[in-house]
Amino acid sequence: MYALIDCDNCFVSCERVFRPDLEGKPVVVLSNNDGCVVARSNEAKALGIKEGVPFYQLAEQFPGVKIEALSSNYTLYGDMSARIMAIVRMYAPRVEVYSIDECFCDLEGMEQTFDLKRWGEELAARIRQWVGMPVSIGIGQTRTLAKVASRYAKTYAGYNKCCVIDSDEKRRKALAGFPLNKVWGIGRAFDAKLASLGVRNTLELADKPEGWIRMLFPLPFENTWRELNGVSCIDTTEVHEKKSICTSRSFPGMITSREELRTHISNYASRCAEKLRRQHSVCNILTVFIMTNWFRKDLEWYSGMMNVTLHTASANTTELVAAASAVTDRIFRPGLSYKRAGVIVSGITPDSAIQLDMFESDVDKRKRLDAISGTVDSINRRMGTETVVLAAQQYPADPKTGKAPHFKDAILHNLRTPCYTTNLQDIIPVK
DNA sequence: TCTGGGGTCCTAGGACCC
DNA sequence: TCTGGGGTCCTAGGACCC
Asked: Is the pTM above the cut of 0.70?
C-alpha cells in the first residue's frame, strides 16, 4: 500500500499560519512578477477563480469582491515543506518527496501492524498541530489510487482527512465516481480524447482491455491504466541527479537591449552552475532561449533557441556564463522586445568522473576556476546570495543611488510577505 | 499596462553519417 | 529508368506533473 500526503492549498495555508486574519477569506497567491494565480483558498475556488488566471483580470472578473492577494514567498513555503516532510518521516520509513506540497509513503509491511486509517488520521492531526498545515491523506494499492483517495479525503469532511481504498469493492466505487481529468496522468488532451471515445468515468477506463489502451494511447498512459487496476508501476523514488536544470524568467517589462538581455542570461547561467554544484554534477550541454511576448499580437513574435556542447563537462560559473553569453549573441535579433529568457543545462553527469578534453591544455586553470566557484559559493551561503558575482552578472548602477541592483530584485513582488521562519528580522513578535 | 517556473517523457522530421 | 538500410544528433513540439 502507498500513502499520499498532500497539503491543502499549500501556499495559501503557509501564509495563513502567520496571518490568521486570512482564515475564511478568499485568498490567492501569485506567480513571479505577481503575474498569475498559482494557489487559491477554498473560498477563492468557490468564487470561481480559476488557477492560472492573470492577476490583473481578477478585478475585471470580480468587481467589488475583496480578494486577498499575496506574492509568492518560496523561502517560506520551502521551509514549511521541510518541516512537514520531517514529521512524515517519523511516521513512515520510506518517504518519497514528490513536490513541495506532497509526498508518497511506501507502506509495505505496515498493514499488519497498523490500522492505516487511524495512522493517517493521526499523521494529519500531528502535521496540523505542529506546523499548522492542513493535509489530506489518501491510501491505496498504487500511487495513482492513493492520489484518488486523497482527493476524496480533501473533498469530503466525513473522511476526517484520510481516505483508504483497501478493497476491490472500494476501488470500483471510488473510480466510478471519479472524473477522468482529475486522474494523475490525464490532462486536458487525454480527457478530451477519452470523452470522444465514449469513456465517461474512471472505472470505465480501468475496465477497458489492455489492447484497447495500447492501440489508442502512448506508452506512459498504459502505466496509469495499470495503476488504476491496482498494479503498481509508477516509481517516484527520489532521483538525486536531475537530467536537466533550467533557470528562466519573464521580465516585468520588455527588453530590447542586447547587453541587458546578456546580463540576465549570465545570471541564469550562474544559477544553473550553482544548482549543478549543489547536486555535485557537471553538464556538457548548455541551451539558451529567448522569446518575445506571446500575448502581444501587435508585436513581432520570435523565439530563438540554441545549444552549445562544452568540450569538457563543467559546473563552473565562469565557463557556463561565457558559453551562455556567446550563444546569446547568435540568437539575438535586434529591434525586438524580449519578454522571457532562460538557460537549460543538460548532459548531466557526476562531478566525480569528468572526462577531460584531449586538447585541454591548461588543466590547472580549470582547477583554479573550480576553486573560485567553490569559494564564491561558500561566501554567498554565509553572506547571502549574490554577495559576490561575476562582472558579467552585474546590472548597471542606479543613477540615483549609485548601487547596482541584484538579479533577485529583477522580479516584481509587490505583495511579498515576510520570511517568518528563516529570517531573524521577520520573526513575529509574541505579546 | 499587467499573462510563472521547473521538471519528465515521447514523437516526428530533417540533416548528416556510413 | 530504376533509387536501401541503419544509425546519430538536433530541433521542435506535445503530452503530462507540480
From this structure: yes
- In the chain, the amino acid numbered A423 is N
DSSP A397: P
123-162 of chain A touching strand C, CB 7 A cut-off: 147
A37 CA to C16 C1' in angstroms comes to 20
Q: At what angle do helices A116-130 and A74-91 cross, to 10 degrees?
A: 140
**Distance of alpha carbon A190 from the chain centroid:** 23
**Chain C: bases < 7 Å from a protein Cβ:** 10-18
- Residue A4: how many other CB atoms lie within 10 Å: 29
Q: What angle do CA A8, A13, A18 make, to 5 degrees?
A: 160
Query: For residue A257, what are the contacts with CB-CB under 8 A and spacing of at least 6?
Result: none
Query: pLDDT, tens digit, for every residue of A101-125?
Result: 999 999 999 989 999 999 999 999 9
A281-292 and A303-314: which strand pairing?
A: antiparallel
Collapse the DSSP code of A252 into the 3-class scheme (helix H, G, I; strand E, B; otherwise coil) and give the result: strand
